[in-house]
Amino acid sequence: MTSPQNISHRTDLDVGDLTRAIENFNRFYIRLASVQKLSFTTLSVLDTLAFSGPTRLTDLVRTEQMSQPGVTQLVTRLERDGLVERRPDPTDGRAVLVHITEAGLKVGQARHQDRARHLQPLISLLTSEERQTISAALPVLARLADLGMQTRQ
């Protein structure tokens, strides 16, 4: 049987190192201060809706790894706050789709701008070569994320 370390050497990429780097960066990144004081779960649901489009509650249960009652409560709160709205599913009259509203999209945009504002001074501390390395890796990281999203569906 092949160990995870042997696999990483065959691919010239240590997956454990990549995982640690992503986790360390994520630990810092998701906690960046934001003008909008919303929970990680709220931001995740809004991000999912902004990225994936209208979604059934049952699909949010899966993507957000929450219970059905938890998702229902959260969507009710977000709907009350004007960040999402429920509409009938045109393909199934018994189901509803959760849509992100313009206000919900603005929350995500503000979060993105806040994060960029906090990252900019840190990026400026990197060498030119480090910035170029990150820039060169962006298309591959985007592809890796796309592949991950495809396997979740």
Name some characteristics of this structure:
mainly alpha; single chain; three-stranded antiparallel beta sheet; globular; 153 residues
Written overview of the protein:
With 153 residues, the chain is mainly alpha-helical. 68% of the residues lie in helices and 11% in strands. It has helices at residues 4-10, 15-29, 40-52, 57-64, 68-80, 102-124, 128-152; strands spanning 55-56, 84-89, 92-100. Strands 1-3-2 form a three-stranded antiparallel beta sheet. Strand 2 (84-89) and strand 3 form a beta hairpin. The longest helix has 25 residues, at 128-152. It is globular, with a radius of gyration of 19 Å. Residues 5-9 have low confidence and may be disordered.
Assembly status:
single chain
Sheet with the most strands?
3 strands, antiparallel
- Rg, nearest Å: 19 Å
User: Helices and strands: which structural class?
Assistant: mainly alpha
The end-to-end distance, rounded to whole angstroms, is 29 Å
- Beta content comes to 5-15%
- Which strand order spans the largest sheet, edge to edge or round the barrel? 1-3-2
**Share of helix, binned:** 55-70%
Total helical elements: 7
Number-wise, the strands total 3
Mean pLDDT: 88
What is the molecular shape? globular
What sequence of helices (H) and strands (E) makes up the elements?
A: HHHEHHEEHH
**Regions with pLDDT < 50 over 5+ consecutive residues?**
5-9
Could you give a short description of this structure?
By secondary structure, this protein is mainly α. The protein has helices at 4-10, 15-29, 40-52, 57-64, 68-80, 102-124, 128-152; strands spanning 55-56, 84-89, 92-100. The radius of gyration is 19 Å and the shape is globular.
